[in-house]
Automatic annotation (TrEMBL):
Compartments reported by the entry: Cell inner membrane; Cell membrane
Keywords: Cell inner membrane, Cell membrane, Membrane, Symport, Transmembrane, Transmembrane helix, Transport
Source organism per UniProt: Vibrio mediterranei
Protein family (similarity comment): Belongs to the alanine or glycine:cation symporter (AGCS) (TC 2.A.25) family.
Protein name: Sodium:alanine symporter family protein
Amino acid sequence: MTDVINLMNDLLWGSILVYLLVGVGIYFTVRLGFIQFRHFGHMFSVLKNSRKADSAGISSFQALCTSLAARVGTGNMAGVAVALTAGGPGAIFWMWLIAMLGMATSFAESTLAQLYKTKDDDGNYRGGPAYYMEKGLGMRWMGVLFSIFLIIAFGLVFNAVQANAIANAMNTAFGFDPMIVGVAIVLISAFVIFGGVRKIARTAELIVPIMALAYLALAIVVMVMNLEKVPEVIAYIFKSAFGLQEAAAGGLGYAIAQAMIQGIKRGLFSNEAGMGSAPNAAASATPYPPHPASQGYVQMLGVFTDTIVICSATVAIILMSGEYVPHGEVTGIELTQRALSSQVGEWGGIFVAVAIFFFAFTSIIANYSYAETNLIFLEHNHKAGLGLFRIIVLGMVMFGSVATLPMVWALADVSMGLMAIVNLIAIILLSGIVIKLAKDYNRQLKAGKVPTFDANDYPELKSQLEEGIWYSKETDNK
């Protein structure tokens, strides 16, 4: 079984996804007119009115925090350290590149999720790739396939990984028994998960900004303490990205390949652009401006914040510490803890443990919300089904807390890769709609208007949209 999973990983991440992610990112970057660069400032402008919500949807800010809760976790602290150790500092360049390209991909998938969202039995907005595969492409089978991959990855595997990171960090920093830590995580997670999507959003809105700002502040302190090393570290990253460090040793091709693979793999695990996860949060929002593309801008900011900002903070902490050893035995969260402790003292390791607890905990509850949305798509949202699924999710959290996870990590990579492939195919097939919506939004913006989506302008789409969300028959008949 392990050999099969490793073979699939090598196939997916050694070639298929590298080309697909970069290719789709370039495609949307060009088709959308380099939107992530030209409209960089607008990503922040959209947040001005992002606290608006209604009875059906959470606010855009809550949707951003929920998606960041899922994004900002072990990938930002442990994953970056793994990428550095396995792929060298050059992996960070490729992580940055895939994030910049991924911002355009994220715009596309989140815009589509907003457009094709529906209401569940409780009147809450639901949506995501499975929904636009069914409604936009008329391919429910594709949505079912995606939902299954997502439920396995986010509902089960990733939550075990996040719980494992918390348990290891708490054991390293405080000597806590992983079993006790696991029980605590399960109890706290259950309290939030059983409260539904709104409690998850409120929890993410409270925790994520505070912890992200605290982590960034500490990284800035480390950089200020090591200002003279900043140019050296940046040069080190770029030289390693193109194998200049390794060329003399004759390992040029291998070094570049490893840097690319690790950077792209860990970059996707961290920012999730193109994977099809964040659109599940984007769809649950009541957007302002009231246009599907506004959520595209919000979620682009999520990718930027996750990788370009928070992952880079971890990079700075590790590479400026003197603790980093290429292909060394110390990796993952332990390397991040050691690096920070060497800079600010023993409490640095404690801070990382606390940060990973909150980041990974919010990832667990956000991951669950994604899985729940896809469980609803599969029409298993009756109370008994949801209750059983929640118990299984919490069981995986407990399992992850006490298990050794090389196999689980490998399974996470496979699930993530399969999700991404299905989603990337779907958004390419629906790319024409994305381009139309982006042009409509920006045309209104240039005219000094608040961009507002009118389904009547898109008769070819209207039949695919759920009545009562973007249009209503009563309004149309007046």
